[in-house]
């Protein structure tokens, strides 16, 4: 699935959630947060996520590894330049060592040093041995990446309208959307 398609899909689904909350939301008292809320069951994440899978971000063992990087999240850099890379890495390490000895960190470094460090790191990223995989963007799985994109746009759309997403008490796969009602 293309990223632009997932974005559209996320927004379309979020718009549906907003609509459903307006029409069928149930207003109730939420004891835990001492708040009046309006909530509605939106669906099962297995039907909502592009991958159709439920997993925890730190244990995505059931997602298919990226076909391009085989789950590594990086691929060999076609612009890899060993000499430049080694020289600049050495320079970066030396500078950091010097700064540490001086008790200085990046954010309190003189502006001139910061600019130089930024430039060194920028060039290192261009010539380093491996670069972020352009298929899964470092996630290691294309479908996990697609779920991430989906979640980001879905949540963003709802957050802009002060709508939160939560799981039902009984089932972590049940997605509930809701909003807090201002109490007088
Ligand atoms: Zn990849």
Description:
This protein is α+β, with helices and mostly antiparallel strands and 184 residues long. Helix 1 packs across helix 5 and helix 3 runs antiparallel to helix 4 (111-127). Strand 1 (26-30) and strand 2 form a beta hairpin. It is built from 5 helices and 6 strands. The strands form 2 sheets. The protein has a 4-stranded antiparallel β-sheet with strand order 1-2-6-5. A two-stranded antiparallel sheet has the order 3-4. The mean pLDDT is 89. It binds zinc ion (ZN). Zinc ion is lined by residues 66, 68-69, 73, 133, 135-136.
Please sum up the structure shown.
By secondary structure, the protein is α+β, with helices and mostly antiparallel strands. The protein is built from five helices and six strands, in the order H-E-E-H-E-H-H-E-H-E-E. Helices cover 44% and strands 18% of the residues.
Which tags fit this structure?
binds zinc ion; 6 strands; 184 residues; elongated; 18% strand; alpha+beta; four-stranded antiparallel β-sheet; two-stranded antiparallel sheet
List the SSEs and their pairings.
Layout: H1 3-24, E1 26-30, E2 35-44, H2 45-48, E3 74-76, H3 82-101, H4 111-127, E4 130-132, H5 142-159, E5 164-167, E6 174-181
Antiparallel strand pairs: 1-2, 2-6, 3-4, 5-6
The structure holds zinc ion (ZN).
Structural class: alpha+beta
Helix content: 40-55%
Sheet with the most strands: spatial strand order: 1-2-6-5
Low-confidence stretches: none
Rg (CA only): 23 Å
Q: How many distinct folded domains? A: 2
Please report the number of helical segments. Answer: 5
SSE order = HEEHEHHEHEE
Q: Major β-sheet, in short?
A: 4 strands, antiparallel
Shape: elongated
Per DSSP E runs of 2 or more residues, the count of β-strands stands at 6
The small-molecule ligands in this entry are: zinc ion
Percentage of residues in DSSP E strands: 15-25%
Mean pLDDT across the residues is 89
What oligomeric state do the depicted chains represent?
single chain
Distance between the termini: 46 Å
């Amino acid at each position: 699935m293309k990223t632009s398609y997932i974005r559209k899909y996320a927004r379309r689904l979020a718009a549906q959630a907003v609509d459903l909350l307006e029409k069928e939301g149930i207003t109730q008292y939420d004891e835990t947060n001492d708040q009046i809320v309006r909530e509605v069951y939106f669906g099962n994440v297995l039907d909502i996520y592009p991958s159709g899978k439920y997993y925890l971000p730190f244990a995505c063992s059931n997602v298919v590894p990226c076909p391009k990087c085989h789950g590594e999240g990086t691929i060999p850099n076609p612009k890899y330049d060993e000499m430049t890379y080694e020289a600049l890495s050495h320079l970066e390490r030396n500078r950091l060592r010097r700064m540490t000895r001086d008790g200085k960190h990046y954010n309190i470094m003189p502006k001139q040093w910061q600019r130089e460090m930024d430039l060194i790191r920028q060039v290192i990223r261009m010539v380093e041995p491996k670069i972020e995989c352009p298929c899964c963007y470092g996630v290691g799985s294309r479908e996990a990446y697609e779920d991430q994109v989906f979640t980001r746009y879905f949540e963003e759309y709802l957050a802009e309208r002060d709508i939160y997403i939560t799981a039902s008490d009984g089932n972590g796969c049940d997605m509930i959307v809701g909003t807090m009602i201002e109490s007088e």
